[in-house]
Amino acid sequence: MKFTKMHGCGNDYVYINCFEETVNDPSELSKRVSDRHFGIGSDGLVLICPSDAADCRMRMFNPDGSESEMCGNAVRCVAKYVYDRKLVHKKNIAVETLAGIKYIQVHTDENDVAKTLTVDMGEPVFEPEQIPVLSDDGKVTLSAFENDFDFTCVSMGNPHAVTFIDTDVKDFDVEKFGKVFETDKCFPRKANIEFVQTVDRTHLKMRVWERGTGETLACGTGTCATVAAACANGICPREKVEVELLGGKLVIEWKESDGHIYMTGPARFSFDGELIMED
Fold first, then answer.
1. Does 231 qualify as catalytic in the annotation?
2. Is residue 71 annotated as part of the catalytic site, yes or no?
3. Is the pTM for the entire model greater than 0.90?
C-alpha cells in the first residue's frame, strides 16, 4: 500500500490516496502506522477519498483508532495533495468531512506548487449541547493537582476547551493537565484542551492536548477555537490574529461579515513510501 507523509506546522499524518488504494480497517491501520517506534510515526491516519458531495472526502483517525470529525492542519494537506498531484487542480477546493464541507483557497508559488492554504472553517459554536459540554453557558471551571482553570468551550466541528494561563506556555506541563481534562465527565465526547498565553491583542501562543492523541505540535481546529474564545472574552479583536504553536504559526481571522473563521497556514510533503503489512 502506497502512502504519503505530510505535515501542517509539524502536525503530521500518514495520507493514503483512496482514489487508488483500499483500506478495509482504517482504525486498526491508524494504530499501526502512527506508532513512532514500530510504524511510520504520525499523529494519525488520513484517507483521501472520492466524494459525491465535494471534490474529495477526508477521513481522519487518531493514533488510538478513533475517528475525528475534523482536523484543520490535515484538511490543508489534503487540499495540497489533490492540487499538486492534479487529482483536483483548481484554486478553490471543496473537501467533505464529518464536520461538513470545507472550502479551501490554494495559494501557489511561481512553480504552481501549493504553499499556503486558507480554509473557511465555518462558524464557531458556543452552544453547550452542540459542543458538547455539560454546562449552562459553555464555560466550566475544572481543577487538577490543586490548580483551578477557567475554560471557554467551543466547537469547530469537534469539541475544544480553551483556557488562558498567566505563565509562559512553553514551560507549562501540558501532558500532566491535558490528559486529566480531556476525559473530564463534563465532556461527553472528550475534548481537545488548549492552553493559551496572551502576548498581545493580535498575537497568542498556544499548546494543545488532543483527544485520542496527546500533545501535538499544532492543531488547526484548536487554533480556530482559541481565537474564537479569545474574541468572545475580549482578549483579541475580530481581525487577523497570529497564533504561535510549537510547530509553526497560523493566521486566524473571525470575520464580522459572515461570522466564519478563516485559517491560513502551510502544508508540506515529507516523503512517499510503501507500507508492507507484515504480521
1. no
2. yes
3. yes
